[in-house]
Design a protein that fits this description.
The longest helix is centred in the C-terminal third of the chain and has 25 residues. 46% of the residues are buried. The protein is built from 13 helices and 13 strands. The protein has 321 residues and is an alpha/beta fold. It has two domains: 109 residues, Nucleotidyltransferase, domain 5 (2-Layer Sandwich), CATH 3.30.420; 186 residues, ATPase, nucleotide binding domain (Nucleotidyltransferase, domain 5). The protein binds zinc ion. The site of zinc ion has 7 residues, from helix 5. The site of zinc ion (ZN) has 7 residues, from helix 5.
Length: 321
């Protein structure tokens, strides 16, 4: 009987759970909506139920699941695993680690989702090769993870990596964090949706709107498709997003001089063909020459499982396997 690891990726809109081997093979997965309006207890109950169910499909829960690693959006107090104040989940001071551990009767590690994504990319995407790696997720929001000398850099109190709240346009759109012109307010999936709805209110964006489905908000998917068809408004929108991302990545590259910057998340994965080349050009134009030497800017190959892979990597480090 082999040891197994349970991994949880708790996001604002969906939860992705998986059971994996210590070699990094994900055996089973389950995705379901978060429904944060039902409150933390309901979410933690459903996560625990799902883990027990998935485990029963792979082996014996009591004897084979050796560790549980759960990712949450930040900010998170470390190592207590208390979600301090998550606007997306509407959680304030939720002792997630203790509550999940109580329900599962297993040791639980809780880590910020973007830190785990960075760790997943580092171990499973890059085989632990680079000494320094920056990970940026561009999805509904924008977040980041920093790997320095092969370790997650959490900062003094665990708050490092909030790349989404780097100001890239001082007079720009208001951000959920209370400031103006943050990268997240201008280049995230939510920001793209917002810009499409502004176009619609002005009677514009017809080429984008025509690709939409009446049942869901029109966002990055439709904008990307319209841009591929040559729609001018969609191309302008994509171009603006790349410009802001480029500005933020250039700042980070000049500060950290990383070997590699990796982008993930739904918008980056879906827009790879539209943004990657231009982003490379923009960043390399803006940073000091020494920081462009061997610099790589790429999109993750781990897709939406990146956080689960990070959970496996965290479990392996902790248990010394
Ligand atoms: Zn902000």
């Amino acid at each position: 009987m082999q040891d197994l690891i349970a991994v949880v990726d708790l996001g604002a809109s969906k939860i992705l759970n998986g059971i994996a081997t210590a070699q990094g093979e994900i055996l089973v997965k389950e995705k379901f909506p978060t429904n944060p309006e039902n409150g933390p207890a309901d979410i933690i109950d459903r996560i625990a139920d799902s883990i027990r169910k998935l485990s029963s499909w792979c082996g014996d829960y009591e004897s084979q699941i050796v560790r549980v690693v759960a990712a949450t959006p930040g900010p998170l107090s470390y190592p207590e695993g208390v979600v301090v104040d998550s606007p997306n989940l509407a959680w304030a001071r939720v002792p997630f680690k203790d509550e999940l551990s109580k329900r599962l009767v297993k040791p639980v590690i809780v880590e910020k989702d973007t830190n785990l994504a960075a760790l997943g990319e580092y171990y499973f995407g890059r085989q632990g090769q680079p000494r320094s790696l920056l990970y940026i997720t561009v999805s509904t929001g924008i977040g980041g993870g920093i790997i320095l000398d092969g370790r997650i850099w959490r900062g003094h109190k665990g708050g490092a990596g909030e790349i989404g709240h780097m100001v890239v346009e001082p007079q720009g759109r208001a951000c959920n964090c209370g400031r103006r012109g943050c990268l997240e307010a201008l280049a995230s999936g939510a920001a793209i949706r917002h810009q499409v709805s502004e176009l619609r209110q002005q009677g514009k964006g017809i080429g984008i709107v025509a690709l939409g489905n009446a049942k869901k908000d029109i966002g990055a998917e439709e904008v990307g498709e319209a841009a591929r068809r040559g729609d001018a408004e969609a191309l302008t929108l994509v171009s603006r997003v790349v410009e802001y991302l480029g500005r933020a990545v250039a700042n980070l590259v000049n500060i950290f001089n990383p070997e590699i910057v990796v982008l993930g998340g739904g918008v980056a994965l879906g827009w790879q063909d539209l943004i990657l080349e231009r982003l490379n050009l923009d960043v390399k134009k803006e940073v000091f020459a020494i920081n462009t030497q061997d610099l790589k800017i790429e999109i993750t190959s781990l897709g939406e499982d990146i956080v689960l892979y990070g959970g496996i990597a965290a479990a392996l480090q902790k248990s010394g396997i």
